[in-house]
């Protein structure tokens, strides 16, 4: 028997505690030129600053030695305000998983998680402080929504992680940041403008951006259908990840309250449309919760609904739930998890259990912020 749905209390537009100061990463290349000229500098200074920020991954005036000292100190003071202050850092997996709690300019708290694997590196970033989607099993969802992050506040999470890797601070030697996932705190598509601004900064060739591949960037959503359709038209081939968590409306409306606005069939149709428009295979995220959504018949229902929309367009990632302290929600039994995966694969659905790194350091985003609150 499914639990009774919780009341739908979504906040689609974040209340703001204050607007973050203007930052270089909030600007287009043209706006950067205008900004430096307004400060009395030559236009080429914008390219120099971009090279330091996006190529050398620094906002430290002392390292910008190709600029006159007085000039660089003034430009950094005006265009590179400190947006993130590290409050706490926790390590797992021999130091190859690092979770950081950041305080923003207004003392709002967000988290990011950097993970190094044998052949790749991945950063999970936050796009909002808190979240308005109210999913009951999610630590961030229980915090509620404080505000949206700016583009630069998200980009700074990325730059900081990339610099840490470049400096060899993560075991394994100096390396590059390969993958970026918007799966931290917040609903990315509810902060669409800033998230896409970040994506554009990340994929722009150096020195105007970080030069990452769009195919190595994943944007997740609980199913905001209009924004999913808008994303399909951007012309930037990021991977779309749909946090589904249940194949039936009765249960999904409990686990993901936004389902009362856009149903399972509607979000799956929008996900399929993303594949049709972009050619990019969609990921279905499915947190396996003991005795709640892990029944074999639900795996069958999910497989049938995905196959009804065609073959080869989707990949399912069952995720063993990382429970939050004091929560009634917990991970599925391993045998139940194995049966769920086997049933999906029997339907011909590519299925891979998501690696659950950082469980010993409260790896699910929102847990450190919740502790501080």
Automatic annotation (TrEMBL):
Other remarks in the entry: Reaction proceeds by a ping-pong mechanism involving intermediate methylation of a conserved cysteine residue.
Domain Radical SAM core: start-end pairs: 117-360
Binding of [4Fe-4S] cluster, residues: 131, 135, 138
Gene Ontology cellular-component terms listed: cytoplasm
Compartment(s): Cytoplasm
Catalytic activity: adenosine(2503) in 23S rRNA + 2 reduced [2Fe-2S]-[ferredoxin] + 2 S-adenosyl-L-methionine = 2-methyladenosine(2503) in 23S rRNA + 5'-deoxyadenosine + L-methionine + 2 oxidized [2Fe-2S]-[ferredoxin] + S-adenosyl-L-homocysteine; adenosine(37) in tRNA + 2 reduced [2Fe-2S]-[ferredoxin] + 2 S-adenosyl-L-methionine = 2-methyladenosine(37) in tRNA + 5'-deoxyadenosine + L-methionine + 2 oxidized [2Fe-2S]-[ferredoxin] + S-adenosyl-L-homocysteine
Function: Specifically methylates position 2 of adenine 2503 in 23S rRNA and position 2 of adenine 37 in tRNAs.
Residue sites binding S-adenosyl-L-methionine per the record: 186-187, 220, 243-245, 322
Name of the top EC class for this enzyme: transferase
Keywords: 4Fe-4S, Cytoplasm, Disulfide bond, Iron, Iron-sulfur, Metal-binding, Methyltransferase, rRNA processing, S-adenosyl-L-methionine, Transferase, tRNA processing
Listed Polar residues bias regions: 1-12
One Pfam family, short name: Radical_SAM
Keyword presence, Hydrolase: no
InterPro entries (UniProt xref): Aldolase_TIM, Methyltransferase_A, RlmN_N, RNA_MTrfase_RlmN, rRNA_lsu_MTrfase_RlmN/Cfr, rSAM, rSAM_sf
Chain segments carrying region Disordered: 1-23
GO molecular function: 4 iron, 4 sulfur cluster binding; metal ion binding; rRNA (adenine(2503)-C2-)-methyltransferase activity; rRNA binding; tRNA (adenine(37)-C2)-methyltransferase activity; tRNA binding
Gene: rlmN
Any single GO BP term: rRNA base methylation
Source species taxonomy: Bacteria, Bacillati, Actinomycetota, Actinomycetes, Micrococcales
E.C. designation(s): 2.1.1.192
Cofactor: [4Fe-4S] cluster
Family affiliation: Belongs to the radical SAM superfamily. RlmN family.
Active site: 111 (proton acceptor), 365 (s-methylcysteine intermediate)
UniProt name for this protein: Probable dual-specificity RNA methyltransferase RlmN
Cofactor note: Binds 1 [4Fe-4S] cluster. The cluster is coordinated with 3 cysteines and an exchangeable S-adenosyl-L-methionine.
